[in-house]
Amino acid sequence: MKIMIEYFPYLVKALPMTFYILFTSVFLALILALFLTWAKVGKNKIAKAFASVYISFMRGTPIIAQLLIVFIAVPLIMKDLGIRTNNWNNSVYAITAFALNEAAFFAEIFRSAYIALDKGQIEAGQSLGMSGIQVFLRIILPQAGANALPNTTNMTIELMKNTSLGMAIGVYDIMGKATQLALNNYGVGQRELFFEVSIMFWMIGLGFMFLTNRLVDYLNRGTSEHIGKNNRLFKRLQVKGGRV
Amino acid sequence: MSFDFHYAITCIEPILKKLPVTMKLTLWSMAIALLGGILFALMKKSNNKILANVCRLTSSFLKGVPILVFLYFFYYSMDDILHALGGTFRFEYDLRNPPKIQMAIVALSISYIPYMSDMLLSALDTIPKGQFEACYAMGFTKLQMMIRIIIPQLIVVCIPNIGNHFVNLLKATSLAYMVTIVEMMGAAKNFAVKNQRFLETYIMAAFVYWVIFIMFEQLFQLIERHSGKYLKR
What we know:
The complex is a heterodimer of chains A (244) and B (233).
Chain A lengths: L1 H40 L3 H16 L2 H19 L9 H25 L3 H9 L4 H31 L11 H11 L5 H30 L4 H7 L1 H8 L5
Helix pairs in contact in A: 1-2, 1-4, 1-7, 1-8, 2-4, 3-4, 4-6, 5-6, 6-8, 7-8
Chain B lengths: L4 H13 L1 H27 L3 H16 L2 H11 L1 H11 L10 H27 L2 H9 L4 H31 L11 H12 L2 H30 L6
């Protein structure tokens, strides 16, 4: 217990690194995933085939292999382009790998959310003379976004857990810091240390879950499910067999 | 950047040689996780509220922690505990040669237990209540009801999810190389270090994983189509 309190400040100092990797890669992955989804549901056959192979590869290979490939390939490519990578932080490679990996999963989620939409609405929008961007922003995004949000945050929590792999390429996030601390102390108190790390990951995950539940409730306000969940009168009517 | 194809082809053999270790890790963890998942699902469904809540808390915890943390926890910090237990229960524990693979199996399986129990519970919800009542009305015992009516349907509902978790677990076993277990990824790393060519080796390792992933995906789809036959008449 004493060791845990002693180590805690060091681990908290590593928290910003975890969040930095997480948010940057999620942001990049969201952008990439939009393109992938567009390729996957669109009519361009070449783009569709490329997106399918990409998604299958990213889903079918371990994330650690992707991380190592990016870690080795990116400096070589940059060398060919004449860019020096000697003083880049290792977190750059971690972010690249996680973003590339996560984009595939996000694209799958977005595609299923898009398919769940009522196609008549898009046609209605087009018949009203909306441009493609208007249809996307006003009709597709509000509904598909609300549909996709729970799954997207689940994937984000998964990614948060996966950021711990960054230590394989020398990124000092929580897990990397913990192993460093363990090595510094010749392995004294490792059990407490890793237990503490697991508690921290759990708490971050729970925080994310709490925030998303709030957000999903907010986005789904006005739909009948949501009203049913929060309204006592509605529940009583339902129990009595009445339809509202 | 240069990619040496001849070298890349020579990588495949040492990687594939360690496929049995990967499969051993996957299958054992899958089996233990399924057993634990059944246990957790039963406890969550039980009438004992304390037990059910403890189970819920535990599975939330197990879901929130990366597999890597569990692997490190079991690999680096169980030494003295196991040594002491070996003293009391009279089994031989060799400190210099710890049972690495067994520890990895425990770490992988406990992190998949909550997913398994969730899967089973959601599958149980898909079975209509009327069937349970019909079983009571027919005078089935609980065991008979489970074995003859519920479980055959449960398996069919679960198969797609089990396939998903299985391939995820297969990918997750690659993490075991971080705790010095030589499975496919570990073999790739050793081979790369020996020849000082990292890019080709890791890409080939990824391709090997990809091929295995696709094979298992197809296999599970086949099983799914076969087992769901009675549903579409």
